[in-house]
Amino acid sequence: MAEWHPAFEEYCETIFELAEDDIEVVQARIHERLGVSRPSVSEMIKKMDAEGLVQTDATVIRLTPAGRTLAESVVRRHRLAERFLTDLLGLSWAEAHSEAGKWEHVISERVEAAMMTILGDPTTCPHGNPIPGSRYVMPDSLPLSDLVIGAHFTVSRIPEELEFTPGLLAFLEDSSITPGSEGTITATSPDGTITVKIDGRTIGVGSFASARILVTA
């Protein structure tokens, strides 16, 4: 694959992840996710369009086949790096997410292959998001907020949107709300807070997170 400037990689990755979480990909969402100015986003999208990486239909931005190939490569390296940093180096979710944002731009194909081998060909990142190119099959999941009191569940995925919410990754990891963990809904509140019992503890999960955490019931 041709080498691209990290900014092109970052934008393709962002567009891919927004679409993956069923968030409409418009410039405002990219602005919010990356924390850059709206004029900067507009100028970058124009450059990406000229490079054949994106197409814009009205206000909705879509990756071209070339853009998707680049995005999948970056997302794969990011999620693989997160797995390496948590599983082998013992970093926390939040630390690994931050560091992987740097690693994703410099991991070579040879190093990527070696990491896959030493990790045993993982299919997801630590948060349950699929590694592009793996043979991961997404289970039938639903938001935690859709469950009723007394329902039992297994956490399946923490979408990327929650990874970018300040402090939330640390909260979820500390609360054992991690892929594979089993819990029970014990209460709901008018404000949308869901109370769960998981790993022997009772935890309150706010409406923003509970509407996005995916579980199997």
What does this protein structure show overall?
With 217 residues, the chain is of the alpha+beta class. The chain folds into 2 domains: 1-136, Winged helix-like DNA-binding domain superfamily/Winged helix DNA-binding domain (Arc Repressor Mutant, subunit A); 142-216, SH3 type barrels (Roll), CATH 2.30.30. It has helices at residues 6-20, 27-34, 38-50, 65-87, 93-103, 109-119, 160-163, 168-174, 207-210, and strands at 54-57, 60-63, 142-143, 152-157, 182-188, 194-198, 201-205, 214-216. Helix 1 (6-20) packs across helix 4 (65-87).
Q: Which features characterize this protein?
A:
217 residues; alpha+beta; Arc Repressor Mutant, subunit A; SH3 type barrels; 2 domains; six-stranded antiparallel β-sheet; two-stranded antiparallel sheet; 8 strands; 17% strand
Gyration radius, in Å? 18 Å
Structural class: alpha+beta
**Helix and strand run:** HHHEEHHHEEHHEEEHE
Shape descriptor: globular
Q: Which bin fits the share of residues in helices? A: 40-55%
Count of distinct strands? 8
